[in-house]
Please model this.
Amino acid sequence: MEYDVVIGLEVHAELKTNSKCFCSCKNEAGDEPNTNCCPVCIGLPGALPILNKFAVEQTIRAGLALGFEINRTAVFERKNYFYPDLAKAYQISQLVKPICINGSLRIGNKDIPINRIHLEEDAGKLVHGADGSTLVDYNRGGVPLIELVTDALKEPHIESADEAIEFLEKLRQIYIYAGVADCLIEKGQMRADVNVSLKPKGSDKYGTKVEMKNIMGFKSVYRAIQYEIERQRDILDDGGVIEQETRKWDDDKGINFTLRTKENSQDYRYFPDPDLLAVKIDDAKIDEIKRTMPMLPNELKEKYMNEYSLSEYDADVLLQFKHVSDFFNQCVADYNQPKTVCNWITTEIMARIKTESGAGPILISKDNLVWLMKNVDNKKINRLSAKDVLSKVWGTDLSAENEAKRLNLIIDIDTGALDEIIKKIVEQNSNVVEQYKTANDPKILNYLVGQVMKETRGKANAGDVMAKIKELANS
Ligand SMILES: [Zn+2]
Model:
């Protein structure tokens, strides 16, 4: 039987703020365990939360970047449950009145409806030892977290693992460009819950959904969805029934298994947190955040393609990593040749920084790269020499200009001397020149250019040399 697949996503992202959501402890990953904690974030009795205004602003910024409506009144509620990583046995979250409602995100030609983004606090982290012991680190407890929930009850749906990944990647890019979150997957700063259901093709009655929580990394999300679709398809094909449940994805084994049958929101006994007033958000605040919104990927893409005449492919390569497009923007501000700058960055720079999971830092200054590009364009240094210099200065604080001078790569041979050398080479290779004249083979021409470049120790401009040889050969 053929089925329609319906996928819902709940995406958690840790906000980029200096301090936690309801206290002034540092929001910093990677510190010594249990050093960024206080009575509020470990939930000691009587400790009172104080809302971090910037966390609210960051949530609004995330919402505006995705076209959400902003609720003028937002309410914090307690979500009650017990788990060792949650010392106060409730999480401050939002249920009925979240900060952002009704947004969407475009993937392919579909605008995927998004129900809400709400602000909540993260829980601590359990660290399981090899000896079977478990330790708890509360540094992450109270870190501001935004949860985005797609609306799988509305069309169009996310219908495949590929679409889910595209959604997550786009969302991550928007959060990073908007400056609301770093979304470092390996640090757990962005995590996804996935729910999957199948229904007979064309049917408008939804199937039973199965949820998989806290999947780390997009590759795992992809595999988990593929696996779950197949699992449900097999059950339905055999005439079975899908149980509503939460399943745990085991990435090592490549399977999932039942964690618990589905709880619903009533089980959490949500109620408004009596320690926190409702948040009033006025138009002035929303306008201010709109005004200070950094350029988002789609706006930059339009600028690159329309204003700079870059291809869509090049624009996408530049925009894939924010630090790369930032560097591109800085270089273009200094040297207004977007096409040239793009070529250097998408080839030479990307080749040096691209890693399996992303992109490392750019280890050349804007000034050095601009100097190299300008001087290649001005024919003061050959492209190949410039690439050598780039390698020499990469990861150092050397100046490209000094290196080019030190290595004697600046083209400064005078025209008279160069003409003499070219004449000499052409005479010495008269039979090769004859071959070139009959075959008109660019390889032969390149050989002759190479001879001249060798004689000048790379200090002539290859293009000029080529033109001159052609002229002599045809005279
Ligand atoms: Zn604290």
